[in-house]
Design goal:
With about 850 residues, the chain is of the alpha+beta class. Helices cover about 20% and strands about 30% of the residues. Among the domains are: about 65-220, Sandwich (Apoptosis, Tumor Necrosis Factor Receptor Associated Protein 2, Chain A); about 235-350, Cathepsin B, Chain A (Alpha-Beta Complex), CATH 3.90.70; about 605-730, Ubiquitin-like (UB roll), CATH 3.10.20.90; about 755-855, Ubiquitin-like (UB roll) (Roll). The model is unreliable at about 1-55 and about 735-750 (pLDDT under 50).
Length: about 850
């Protein structure tokens, strides 16, 4: 993609700055491993998007051999950048048409860095043009991983015999190990420079297959480490030791305020002192606890921190997340919440001591000795910007005295109407002075709120004593140091907030821009946020608002809030980090949450390797008092609250049935060989019952689930526990047919497969209905022959219940959740259509008198 270079337009031809993306297809030479850079210079800042509003007439072009004049004319030094070193290097190109398609010039040095010219005589991805680039010159060695150099450069191609004939282009770039070259794919049209008459001259620019390329390189100092940075893979923690805050949508204003408060050590210490160790404390201090967690994570996390927990504690909805709120109002609400929670704790009165000053509103008669006044606290001050050129002007405006006279005289008690002076004076200023600059105000001509982008200066050191009452205590100087500048860039309807803050009392400024933290200079924090006109080298310019895309001579980025700290309280307000310990419970709790979050993240990544298996045992069946076998829908419930709920296991899909059985044996404390899993299936009547045992030890759980389970219910297993013989060995029912030789079904012939299946022992579950308690309980399971009559179940029941022989029973089959059917004692189980997993419910047989008695006690029985 071609990118026009607005910095390089000259009368000698149009400049096009383009990333070089390799050679034309079909090239017959080896390219170097690191291709030509593909990143364009950073043009995101409003200050870099400047157009000349009053272009002067171009004087006669200098000669290409007049290096100083060429540099001054086409590559003047930028007033905002300090030069580290400059170099000029010329390379005589001969045998142009015979050169390889990719050619390097000799290595030269500037600021200790090696450089060279990369030349494509036949063009690079633009066959009609020749291509030139400036490239780092480490040649066979790749630069160190953290190597970089910020350079302005100009490439000039000229006729060595006539230095008035040339083509020149200018660019700037942050050269790095990964982006080691930058320049011009369409440096000049080949037909133009080889033409017999170049641009009105009587000779070609490339004459006799020869030309001269001169490179001008100016390496700039980079005090912040991010000049022209593209911020790809930028690591705030690594570069600055601090992390930013993620923007939820339109919470950049919140992020700026929170970073300012976090870096105010005394404030953070007071927040940490709010009790949040118990669940009760956290419930009544949700915002305080959320702020504690946020601050601790800003200290310890390696990447940007989310503010969602904090905004959730505010009760904000999604709509409020995407609306910019008033910073002053938000600050006051937060302070009120925190101050309320600090009452009765060691942090009580900490916030007022930091942020509260006192001002006096007065009415003082001129001609009589009478004054009416009221002293009140202030947490912050709103200062006028419109009509004020500086912070001192705003304070003078704030305490400006109004004279009440004529028709506006003051009615003084006991003195009647009197000439008087009305005003405000400060009695004290707080340790931390929050100043809200009124950048937005109502414009009566436009009948709308507008942003005030006028120039407004503020100092790094500010003396507030001139604005104090004469009677105020001035024993301790009221000298303040600038700690933070909160900036708004844009206009009333579209914009962005970020902050310049000092993490240390005598340290440098850093820029906190949502999730990114970078070093900043004092000039970037102060002068560049005064607002006012765009000017470069004293010339009025136009800048483009990066959010509205409109051009204006006024800067759209300017300070809207200032934070000053009293010089005499700096040690108290900005203590060392070691003196701001977090609550003891907080690190452990957050470490647990991070471990859990990491576990869940890993589980998500490995989810395709695992499957969920629901496991029920006879213990669950016995604890269940409802219809069907097990409450499968309750899986994962607390065992104390729902003892019948099956247990959910997260298991590898590749686990075999054999390994699964061994794992369950160990988990349930059973002896080896005493458990076997049964597949649970959904029946057409809506019940879930065991269907058959899993007898394929090498089958994987995934294969078993795909073959036997249903999509809706997932993979469910019932673990059957075997009975033991006298020697303690497990007894499993034989899978062989149980019919006698004289059975009428065989008739002396070999049994069919269906007959064999019909005569295999079947597993039956028993439930007991306690008539007195009107309660249904699972008892366990038994094995019966399909040829047994229903009445043969009775001895098993009497044994399990411990009842004497002769107790009369009633047997019912639980067919589905809302339907049971009384069984006929003389019918065989196969005739009653009893199969594996069926449930037989029994109760004692009741006489008519017993039935009447129970109905009297239990009318609904």
């Amino acid at each position: 993609m071609d990118v026009s270079d607005s910095n390089t337009t000259t009368s000698l031809g149009s400049d096009v700055l383009m990333q070089s993306d390799g050679l034309d297809n079909g090239s017959d030479f080896n390219e170097k491993d690191d291709q030509v850079a593909i990143i364009t210079p950073d043009t995101n800042d409003a200050d870099s998007m400047v157009e000349d509003t009053d272009p002067a007439a171009e004087p006669a072009p200098p000669l290409a051999t007049d290096h100083e004049e060429m540099k001054n004319r086409f590559m003047p030094a930028h007033p905002d950048y300090e030069t580290e070193a400059e170099a000029v290097f010329s390379w005589d190109i001969t045998n142009w048409r015979s050169l390889p398609k990719r050619t390097h010039g000799p290595v030269f040095h500037c600021a200790g860095h090696p450089w060279r010219i990369l030349f494509f005589p036949a063009g690079n991805s633009a066959s009609e043009s020749v291509s030139f680039y400036l490239e780092q010159g480490f040649e066979n060695e790749k630069p160190p991983e953290d190597w970089y150099a910020c350079a302005q450069f100009m490439l000039v191609l000229h006729n060595p015999n006539d230095p008035s004939m040339y083509v020149q282009h200018v660019a700037q770039h942050r050269f790095t190990a990964d982006e080691g070259d930058w320049g011009f794919t369409r440096f000049a049209d080949k037909n133009r420079i080889f033409a017999q008459k170049f641009d009105g001259f009587d000779r070609p620019l490339v004459e006799g297959d020869c030309a001269r390329m001169t490179a001008y390189v100016r390496v700039l100092k980079d005090p912040t480490g991010v000049l022209w940075h593209n911020f790809i893979n930028y690591d705030s923690k690594k570069e600055t030791g601090m992390v930013g805050l993620r923007n939820q949508g339109a919470t950049c204003y919140l992020n700026s305020l929170l970073q300012s408060l976090f870096l105010t050590g005394a404030f953070r210490k007071a927040v940490y002192q709010i009790p949040t160790a118990t669940e009760k404390d956290r419930e009544v201090s949700q915002s305080a606890y959320a702020l504690q967690r946020l601050f601790y994570r800003l200290q310890t996390d390696q990447s940007a921190v989310s503010t969602q927990e904090l905004t959730h504690s505010f009760g904000w909805e999604s709509r409020q997340i995407f609306e910019q709120q008033d910073v002053q109002e938000l600050s006051r609400i937060l302070m009120d919440k925190l101050e309320a929670r600090m009452r009765g704790t060691e942090a009580e009165d900490a916030l007022p001591k930091m942020f509260v000053g006192k001002m006096k509103t007065y009415l003082r008669c001129i001609n009589v000795d009478y004054e009416s006044s009221r002293t009140e606290d202030f947490w912050d001050l709103q200062l006028n910007v419109s009509g004020c050129k500086s912070l001192h002007d705003s304070f003078k405006n704030y305490i400006e005295v109004e004279t009440l006279e004529g028709d506006n005289k003051y009615a003084a008690e006991g003195y009647g109407l009197q000439d008087a002076k009305k005003g405000v004076i400060f009695e004290s200023f707080p340790s931390i002075l929050h100043l809200q600059l009124k950048r937005f105000e109502y414009d009566f001509q436009r009948d709308a709120m507008m942003k005030v982008n006028d120039r407004y200066e503020f100092p790094e050191v500010f003396d507030a004593s001139p604005y104090l009452d004469d009677d105020a205590d001035k024993s301790e100087p009221y000298i303040y140091h600038l700690h933070g500048v909160l900036v708004h860039s844009g206009d009333l309807n579209a914009g962005h907030y970020y902050a310049f803050l000092k993490p240390e009392k005598n340290g440098q400024f850093y820029r906190f821009d949502d999730d990114r933290v970078t070093r900043a200079t004092s000039r970037e924090a102060t002068e560049e946020n005064f607002g006012g006109d765009y000017q470069i080298n004293g010339q009025l310019q136009k800048g483009q608002n990066p959010y509205t895309r409109q051009w204006s001579t006024k800067r759209s980025n300017n300070a809207y809030m200032l934070v000053y700290i009293r010089e005499s309280r700096l040690d108290q307000i900005m203590p060392e980090e070691s003196k701001i310990p977090p609550p003891e419970h907080l690190p452990a709790r957050i470490a647990e949450e991070k471990a859990l979050a990491e576990k869940k993240r890993k589980e998500r990544e490995e989810a395709h390797l695992y499957m969920q298996v629901l496991v029920a045992t006879e213990k669950h069946f016995k604890a269940y008092q409802g219809a069907d076998l097990i409450p499968w829908a309750e899986y994962g419930a607390d065992e104390q609250e729902e003892p019948a709920a099956p247990k959910a296991h997260r298991l590898l899909r590749s686990m075999t049935v054999s390994d699964f059985t061994k794992m369950m044996t160990k988990e349930y404390g059973a002896e080896e060989g005493t458990l076997r899993p049964w597949i649970m299936v959904n029946r057409q009547n809506g019940t879930v019952r065991p269907d058959h045992p899993l007898t394929w030890p090498d089958m994987t759980l995934e294969e078993a689930a795909n073959k036997f389970s249903t999509r809706t219910g997932g993979f469910r297993v019932f673990l059957e526990a075997a009975e033991k013989d006298a020697d303690g060995k497990p007894i499993w029912p034989s899978e062989e047919p149980v019919s006698a030789p004289s059975s009428p079904m065989t008739n002396g012939n070999a049994m069919t497969m269906q007959q064999q299946q019909q005569q295999r022992p079947i597993m039956i579950f028993l439930k007991y209905f306690d008539v007195d308690k009107q309660q249904l309980n699972g008892l366990g399971h038994i094995y019966m022959s399909p040829l047994d009559k229903a009445e043969k179940i009775a001895p098993h029941i009497l044994r399990i219940m411990g009842w004497e022989e002769g107790v009369s029973l009633e047997l019912y089959e639980e067919i589905k959740q809302t339907y049971i059917e009384r069984m006929k004692p003389k019918n065989t189980l196969i005739a009653s259509e009893i199969q594996d997993g069926d449930i037989i419910v029994f109760q004692r047989h009741l006489s008519e008198d017993e039935q009447v008695s129970i109905r009297q006690i239990q009318p609904t029985a």
